[in-house]
Amino acid sequence: MKKILLIGKVDDTLKSLNEYLRRYFKVQVCTETTQNAGAIMKVMEPDLVLTLLAGVYDVDMSVFNIICRDYKNLPVVTIGTDGEFRNFQGYFQGNTFENLILPVDNEDVLYALCRRLDVTFDDIGKKATKDHEERHHILVVDDNAMTLRNIKSILDSKYRITLANSGMKAMAAIGRDRPDVILLDYEMPVCDGKQTLEMIRADDEMKSIPVIFLTGVSDRAHIEAVMQLRPSGYLLKPASQEKLIASIEAAL
Q: What domains, with CATH codes, occur in the chain?
């Protein structure tokens, strides 16, 4: 997959665009300072830089200086109004640069990236579908919608994610599309994590699926009760991306 560095302030536009583009590219978001952007570029070595110009102040012009100085052949796409673009148009010329004048939708952006990267939509669509199908499938079960969104956002680039907000919906999801690993909240109403795991273990076709418990309770009695169910892992909320991935990879 091609690597995209997405620079901009955190708002609904950036969130929507990031979610959409991650289906087709490896996207790294930089929402802080241009010094961070320069450091990220050295490590990431992106194939293209995409910048949302809204909210990019004069102090942030240095990122464009970095690109012009150190990454002269790196494709750049900017998105903004006519007025916003006038502040930046002196930085980029030639076929590697393109500015999109608002309003544009996510598909307009996708096609612009394909043009600058010299790839076709069919090519990246097929590659994205193949990569998506080949990823390990993770089922995340939690009654808290924010927790589900957060876990999906930090795992979505590496795994194929399915979400369920209850134990019963989790059982239905497993029946439709068997996951490779289950991240299971322990404290849920009606059907908690313990009951859900017991149902999984009682089904011959499901019982071998690794289950990692997620819980916000850290007292010893609670932990011992959880560990008696012999899960593949046990993580306290909020779990970091590194701990989640490490536990998933160990379970796999």
A: 3-130 (3.40.50.2300), 135-251 (3.40.50.2300)
